[in-house]
Structure formats: C-alpha cells, structure tokens
Amino acid sequence: MKLLNINRLLSVALVALGATLMHVETSQAQFSQAVVVMKGSVRSSETGKPVSVKVSVRSANDTAMEVTASRSNSASGNYLVVLKPSHKYWVHLEGDSVIAKDTLIETPGTSQTIRLMYDFSVETIEAPASVTIQTVVNKRQD
To answer: Which of its termini does the chain have fewer beta carbons within 10 Å around, N or C?
Structure first.
C-alpha cells in the first residue's frame, strides 16, 4: 500500500514538473499583431560613453501625445521600445546631462515582429563647477 502511494505521489510530481517546464518554454513574448521592437544605445558624442536619458516616442502626426517611453540604461546606454510598423515617429531624448535631441524615424512595414537597431549620440552638458559662497559681514562702528 505504501509503495502505491509513493508511486502516485511521484506521478503527480512528474506531471506538475512537466507542465511547469512546458509553460516556461512557451512563455516568450508574443504579440497578437506584428510590431517593431526598436532597440539600441544612447552614447555621448564627445566621449562615446553610455548616457542615461528618457527615450520618449511620439507619433509624427500628433506630437502632443506620447506613444511610449523608455529610459536608457546608465551602465550600457541600452534602451528598448515597441512600435507599430509603417508609422513615422519623433524620438525625443532628454536628460539632466544632455542637450535634448529629436529624431524623426519611420518603422518599416512588416507582417511579423521584427527588430530595428537604432543607436543615438547626444551632446553632453558639463556640470557646473562647484561654487563657494563666502558671506561677508559688515560691522558697523558707532
């Protein structure tokens, strides 16, 4: 009787493990329609070092509304946004240490999900040198 219970328990455990493994294999990103996965890096045009910026994407027809946004990684400069095919977009890059930059892009038409690599370079702003403020007190002599 004990052997039967152990076999039943092992069977249930194997079925559960198999179902988990099947789920892991099929859990990749899937889209109901074709999309353009645009990714790349943002780097300083002066030093070539990665820069962290907000990557804001707006439709070329309606720049008042942000379609999607991302932030480039400070260590690698990498970013990723998901866009519709056959559309024109304004990509706006902004951050504390860069001069804002706008670039018009057009995604290719496609019937399946594709990757589009697009690297940006931005001009960095020098941080102001530290300023020492000295307080001078005038003493009045009566």
So the answer is: C
Q: How far is CA 89 from the centre of its chain?
A: 16
| Per-residue three-class SS string for the chain | CHHHHHHHHHHHHHHHHHHHHHHHHCCCCCCCCCCEEEEEEEEECCCCCECCCEEEEEECCEEEEEEEEEECCCCCCEEEEEECCCCEEEEEEECCCECCEEEEEECCCCCCCEEEECCEEECECCCCCCCCCCCCCCCCCC
CATH topology of domain 36-122: Immunoglobulin-like (2.60.40)
Give the tokens for residue 99.
Answer: 């001069």
**Other residues' Cβ atoms within 10 Å of the Cβ of residue 57:** 19
64-110 pLDDT per residue, tens: 999 999 999 999 999 999 999 999 999 999 999 899 999 999 999 99
d(CA 56, CA 93): 6
